[in-house]
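re: that complex we talked abt at group meeting.

here r the seqs, copy pasted straight from the sheet so there may be weird spacing, ignore it
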Amino acid sequence: MEYFLLQLFIFLAASAIAVPVAKRLGLGSVLGYLIAGMIIGPFGISLIGDVEEVMHLTEFGVVMMLFLVGLELRPSMLWQMRTPILGMGGMQVVLSSIVMAAIALWALPWQQALAVGLILSLSSTAIVLQTLKEKALMNTAPGRSVFSVLLFQDLAVIPMLAFMPLLATLALGEGDHHGSVLFDINTLPAYLQVIATVLAVVSILVLGRYGSRPIFRAIAATGVREIFVAAALALVVGISLLMNVVGLSPALGTFLAGVVLADSEYRHELESDIEPFKGLLLGVFFISIGASLNFTLIGDNLALIAGLTAGLIVIKWLILIVVGKLFKVVKKDRALFAVALAQGGEFAFVLFQFAKVNGVLGADTVEPLISAVAISMFLTPLMFMAYEKRAISKDETQINAREADIISHSGHEVILAGFGRLGTDLGRFLISAGVKPVIIDHDATNVDVLRKLGYEVYYGDITRLDLLEAAGAKEAKLLVITIGDITKSTMLIELVKKHYPHLKIVVNAHDRHACFKLMELNIDHIRRETFGSALALGQDALQQLGVDPYEAYRLARIFRKKDGEMMPELYQWHCEEEHYISHYQQKHAELETLMTRDLLADNDELDKAWTAKNPAL
Amino acid sequence: MKKILINFAHPAKGRSNINSQLRAAVENLDGVTINDLYANYPDFLIDVAREQTLCESHDVIIFQHPFYWYSTPAIVKEWLDLVLEHGWAYGKTGTALKGKWFFQAITAGGDATTYHAQGANQFTLGELTSPMRATAHLCLMDWLPPFAVMGVHRGLPLAQVTNHAEDYRRVVMAIRDDLFNKDKAQQNEFLNSHLDETILRP
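got the structure back, here u go
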């Protein structure tokens, strides 16, 4: 236990130190993790134990990442991307495999060369997606091309795993069979294997589509946040297990689940629940890649490994440029497209391991190649930086020639926090006025009903920064708050003022007291939620008493205006009194002041109008 | 028999005296509809379809209001702006109001002598109400001179107010019963100036 905690501490502390430093130096978090790994690894100051074990464990971060990527991709969008995925991705994998296998033929028999080619054709989903996100390139045209290729590669891993044993030429080592601990699908006859696999995928789709909603609703109804986090984690872990059992890629399975859930109202909540775990696991994963760099081996075979790394990057880069050209990627985006994908990927580690175990490749072949892949991954963030430097200097020379990026994110301008009694009508009003808000509410039943009615409503606690982020607070212009709880509203406002100072805020106040609290925060647009109805009812009452409708209307208007004018004064008074009388007393005193004022109120404004000097007209 | 629509506009009815009495004099007559604009649309959100239907189902349209600043209370302008749509009230296909009678019933502060080139108000009431006359003309309506109660600033003796109210009632009833000489009335400055000549005996 103590050992585990110590290891955990070393990993966490290393990232806590290395990542901020790397970011400060403009290197990005991925490079920070990698360097931290090199420092604490067996070839650095040797603080950590079994790196490989850690790497296996934290590969799960990649699985979570693909789940999150899936969450942001609606099925319709995925369908739209079918050409780049199959075309670009397919061509990149096939061309890279063939070319690299051909080169490897010099040194290896064809089976081994083919295996090497296939494995090296893959790029690093983890590093590339993380870097693209950090640089906000995910929703740009080249970003989506990159993503398409990565997605195809993740799909391609599955047939590769199936195909690899057929290439075996070496004697098998000790029978280290890489099956599932739960259940070995290989004991089934082939047709049953296929059926089991199909069933697993179908069950994910069906469960995601129809089962998830009632389950999440029931969990959300408990109001215990940790349980929702637990459920979200259980979902991802469960799917991974299922995929492992049927021999599919867990990353692919969770990606599918993500896509299915992308339309769900719980999308933002799931996203913000999984995100920190993914971030941590991925971080540790990068650290373990850094730590696994075998400097002794590299030192002994410096020329060979340097050559392999350079060859790997150059060949992949050239092929990517060709693919980009064939698929009409705009010229200025092509460089980014190629730079992003010209490295080996983390699946290479898995596949090399797999190939070794299955007697496809020998250890002496695998070791230098793994090092080359790791170094190429290490170089990727640096290549991004170099690319950016060039792109910026180019931009400066031809600012006018630059086209706008196509942002697929359909920009919602308004975030509506709270969709209860007040929020419902407000939301309806905004929608009728052609303003489509992202609606966030923490009442699961509410969310469910509203979604059935066709509103875009998400479940979640809006006072969480990650959820605000997921709702698009960065791009939004306005936040409308209709939460009854003033503590929550003030929390939310403070959060927004700190992180999204550009957001305009309109907010309701439960009562006059809440109003003062909001005035303390310098909010200009505050409405007391019952004030409007009170005046409207008052206007009705006056009419029923025989007051002329127009006069009743004007009286209400005048009252509203005077009340508004009175607020700053009352606020002043409230601030002075606050310190020495109790809340209850204060409310009482306030009420008294208000009522006395109204008793004395003269509606001279009404008298003056039209008839003051013309009593008979 | 004609159906008569009175579009009544007074923003402070509680404080009006003469307009209230004029209105009371015609309020319960058969064939007369009173449409209180300020009461129906306190927030000025005029229901155009309803107003057009009302106009279509009547033969005579009267605007009854105090003569504010040589014109009408604000809601009447809003009414004209919104209800008199192109293609309905005017324009090639705009014939909904064609042949309907139109006049104003107004109460004015100054007396008749002040509405004169040499008077305090510089223009005659006929001149000052010409925008309404032009409106009626464009909408193919038969315009009649205004029914005017003047000099109300000084305050009118009760008997006089009652007389005006009675005249108003007589005119409205005569028009309703087709006992009104429109052509002759159009020659006069005010609708209520020579009632004995314009109202026919049955």
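couple things i noticed - Residues 23 and 165 of chain B are 8 Å apart (CA to CA). Chain B touches chain A at residues 11-19, 38-40, 42-43, 66, 68, 73, 107, 109, 152-153, 155-156 (CB under 8 Å).
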